Every structure is written in structure tokens, then in C-alpha cells.
Amino acid sequence: xxxxxxxxxxxxxxxxxxxxxxxxxxxxxxxxxxxxxxxxxxxxxxxxxxxxxxxxxxxxxxxxxxxxxxxxxxxxxxxxxxxxxxxxxxxxxxxxxxxxxxxxxxxxxxxxxxxxxxxxxxxxxxxxxxxx
Length: 132
Known about the structure:
single chain, alpha+beta, 5-stranded mixed beta sheet, 5 strands
């Protein structure tokens, strides 16, 4: 498994295993990809962009982890509450990546707004992680 794959699994397990997040997004509200029949509210891993970040002495990678929170009409407050909980869980969190070392995972940004096409609200989150 790659470092990005291990990171994706760790993020998913952390989010899916949190009772407070489950109470906000529902028992089936965390996904590792967008569902054809989108569960709302819900959160999914939209993608991971990985780059080499090796030094002269250590092999490493930098990953931008992109998450999306989707809610239905009138769900701006819910999207913000879910995004806030995700940030608590992941920002500088103690994720375990079998076969790799997580040096850090830090929140970079969250953008919230109305998603007119999907008729709901959206919070796009980006976390920067470094692995060795």
C-alpha cells in the first residue's frame, strides 16, 4: 500500500469511527468516494494529491487531502458543524498509518457555500499531510 492509500484509510477510519461526527452526518454519512445516490448530510474524501518531499536523508511525501461535506437545502449550519468536527478530528491528529510515519497533518483551508447545481450546501476542506 502507498502512503497515500494508508493516509486515506486512516482518515476514513478516524471520521467513520467518531460518534460525534456520526451524530451529525448519520451512520452512513462518511464515504471514501462520492456516492451515486448522495447521502446528505455526508462527507467524502474527494481526493489526495501527493508529491515527493524527500530530503537528502529521508524519503517522504507531501499530501493534500481534499474532503467535501455536502448537505441538502438549508444545510449551511449543518455543513459548518460537520466541517468543524472534521477539523477537530484531523488537524494535528494522531493518525496511524501502517508501514509509514505521519509527520504531520494540518488544516489548510475550508471553503463553504451554496451548491446550486446539487441544491444544497458544500464545505470543501483541505489538509496538508507529510509522511515518511
